[in-house]
Write a structure and sequence with these properties.
With 393 residues, the chain is of the alpha+beta class. The protein is built from eleven helices and ten strands. The protein is globular, with a radius of gyration of 21 Å. Bound molecules: flavin-adenine dinucleotide.
């Protein structure tokens, strides 16, 4: 067993770290306050290959492995969690979706633009009345000559209003069955597409979370992703991969909070010493670092397994032949990392004293940003359901 990174993986990690420290860190507090979406910064990361990491070079992507991908997301989240969720959605839930399930013409039309970061992708599954219970979505898609008409409302769409392509899940059968869910590639210029409003969130203030309505939105038949009725399977498979990215985001935020806390502990003085001389502070830092390393190991293990399961899939290896499944391990990584980062940012705030409660500190923003990780791309409770179901089967 070799835990060391390859030269390529190290290069990707160091390049992204350098970019984030030099070009994003100096403005992050101001951008958070002004809620400015990081369009220019994301374009630059697109130029570095960070928007299409999981797709082959032959399709315009970086052709990187999933370990490189999670290293990239961790480095981005270490400085700016909102940028990391934009990248996670565009890579795992949009670009990869087209590479995996798209037709030749859909790949040709969208992949290289997505991979270069010219357009961002978005994933529209959640609705006001259906989050964890994805099969309960009500958005409908009715066939009409060579066009579908979509009607319904999608909520909490990350990159909503900024993206150039939306993967939209809608019911194509009249009976409300899970099998009736179908995926579509929708462009914001399609008639009937409308960004209705943006959520006013606790954290990730520079990320966009939009409510989008579809009113007789016309989608050509050629923009259906996969077959009719395949949508829920596509969504759940994409979320398995997506969760590894969100777990990496958690590790990145936690690492940023640890670094800020260790630096502050060496500088802040109380009772004639630096606070880092107090055992209470040392123990918090030691626990933070240990938990981060545990989560990172789970994330990188899940990333490695994702590549193995993709190889099994490309060899058409079946479950009976030992094909590996990423789902439960992705859930364990996301569950642990999501809960870990909330413990870490709590301690980071404690170490910073009142400064940790001030918008003058980075750890205050990290505290708000981390909260969502136990909620999106499947709550902690849903991850436990997936893990326990696998354990007891
Ligand atoms: C910032 C942000 C960005 C998001 N981005 C996107 C996006 O890009 N695309 C998208 O489609 N969605 C997105 N979401 C939506 C997100 O994925 C859902 O909010 C999430 O899946 C939870 O759904 P819900 O909010 O409806 O909660 P509910 O499903 O209503 O859950 C409420 C509570 O009940 C619990 N619960 C529900 N079912 C079970 C069960 N079976 N067993 C045990 N407990 C259960 C939950 O764990 C939770 O504690 C985003 C959300 C946020 C906050």
């Amino acid at each position: 067993m070799d835990f060391s990174l390859t030269d390529d993986q190290r290069l990707i990690r160091d390049t992204v770290r350098q970019f984030m420290d030099a070009e994003v860190r100096p403005n992050i507090r101001a951008r958070d306050r002004e809620e400015t979406f990081a369009s220019a910064e994301l374009r630059k990361l697109g130029d570095l290959g960070c928007c299409g990491m999981l797709i082959p070079e032959s399709q315009g992507g970086a052709g990187a492995d999933t370990i490189s991908y999670v290293l990239m997301l961790e480095e981005v989240a270490r400085v700016d969690a909102a940028m990391s969720v934009a990248l996670s959605v565009t890579n795992s839930l949009a670009t990869f979706a087209i590479a995996q399930y798209g037709t030749e013409s859909q790949r040709h039309k969208y992949l290289s633009r997505l991979a270069r970061g010219e357009i961002l992708g978005a994933f529209c599954l959640t609705e006001p009345q259906a989050g964890s219970d994805a099969a309960a979505i009500a958005t409908s898609a009715t066939g009409h000559r060579n066009t579908y008409r979509l009607n319904g409302t999608k909520s909490w769409v990350t990159n909503g209003g900024e993206a150039g392509l939306y993967i939209v899940f809608a019911k194509t059968e009249t009976p409300a069955s899970a099998r009736g869910v179908t995926a579509f590639l929708v462009e914001p210029s399609f008639p009937g597409f409308r960004v209705a409003r943006y959520e006013d969130k606790m954290g990730l203030r520079t990320s966009r979370s939009a409510e989008i309505t579809f009113s007789d939105c016309e989608v050509p038949e050629g923009s259906r992703l996969g077959e009719e009725g395949q949508g829920l399977k596509i969504a759940l498979e994409l979320l398995d991969g997506g969760r590894v990215g969100i777990a990496a985001q958690a590790v990145g935020i936690a690492q940023g909070a640890l670094e800020a806390s260790a630096a502050y502990a060496k500088q802040r003085r109380a009772f004639g010493k630096t606070i880092g001389d107090f055992q209470s502070i040392q123990w918090m830092l030691a626990d933070m670092q240990t938990e981060i390393e545990g989560a990172r190991a789970l994330v990188q293990n899940a990333a490695w397994l994702r590549d193995e399961s993709m190889r099994d899939k490309s060899r058409n290896k079946s479950r009976d032949q030992g094909a590996r499944r990423i789902g439960p391990l992705a859930s364990r990584a996301k569950l642990y990392a999501g809960e870990m980062v909330n413990r870490v940012v709590y301690k980071a705030g404690q170490i910073h004293g009142s400064l940790g409660y001030s918008r003058e500190s980075d750890v205050e923003r990290m505290y708000r940003d981390a909260r969502v990780i136990t909620i999106y791309e499947g709550t902690s409770e849903v991850q436990r359901v997936i893990i326990a179901r696998d354990l007891l089967k």
